[in-house]
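Appendix B: a complete holo record

For completeness, this appendix reproduces one full record from the ligand-bound portion of the collection. The bound molecule is Geranyl phosphate. The inputs are the chain sequence and the ligand SMILES; the output is the full three-dimensional arrangement of the complex, encoded as structure tokens. No fields have been trimmed.
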Amino acid sequence: MPSPRRNAEVRALGALGVSASSSSSPSSPAHGGGGGGRFEFQSLLSSRAPGGEPPAGARLRVSDSPVHRRGSFPLAGAAPAQAPPPPLPEEGRLDLNPSFLAIALRSLLAIDLWLSKKLGVCAGESSSWGSVRPLMKLLEISGHGIPWLLGTLYCLSRSDSWAGREVLMNLLFALLLDLLLVSLLKGLVRRRRPAHNQMDMFVTLSVDKYSFPSGHATRAALVSRFILNHLVLAIPLRVLVVLWAFILGLSRVMLGRHNVTDVACGFFLGYLQYSVVDYCWLSPHNAPVLFVLWSQQ
Ligand SMILES: CC(C)=CCC/C(C)=C/COP(=O)(O)O
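The structure of the chain with Geranyl phosphate bound, as generated:
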């Protein structure tokens, strides 16, 4: 008879489409992640340290084991039951927290994929909102790295005030930092773009085959925060800047380029990046070489 707690675990895993096999041979494909969902179940009930011993905090109590349960209800002719072992100390009991965290993450990921597919209404010409796709692609170019880099360089070359040069120099630094960080993260995480995405983007880097985090979302958050802090704009224009960033992020999911979490984390990262740029703010005092070099162009 499985314990109620064990039943609850199996039900929770079942809800996630995870197999509830209890075979735990270390050489079986299920062991060590080979079997996808089965691995989750293994880690929940029989996580083992490399030496074969269960790690502390991940052991089943002896009283829960099938062997012991057989001993509790001896069949006719079976050896008499042994005396029950003393209860294990607290740290020897089954610790479910790590696996529940894994379940929570898996659920979040499942919701992310489901929602992203639902929102990907402009992913192709034949999608339900396929007619809006050209507009979304225009929005895509408005948040692309190349127009922002070229635009900043152009304005720098035309700027005739030190204050203007300082702001633009820092914007250039912010855009380059963003490209570097996003490329690094994409290369590290290597999350594939959604299956429904058509890879027809304007100029991409090799890491742009990956989707986490969204470079457009990081740029949108970074640039809009930068503009709001360093440009004196009327309220309607400030609202427009925020709207542009938000719609650009949404359009990444609608175009099928990203999952929702790529964009949400992209916004968060871009927001943080601005704080870094603000902290390291380049000025003629702390980076005189840059400004002298530029003024000699
Ligand atoms: C080639 C240069 C300078 C930048 C690439 C910009 C780009 C294509 C980013 C990818 O954005 P998503 O991650 O939002 O798809």
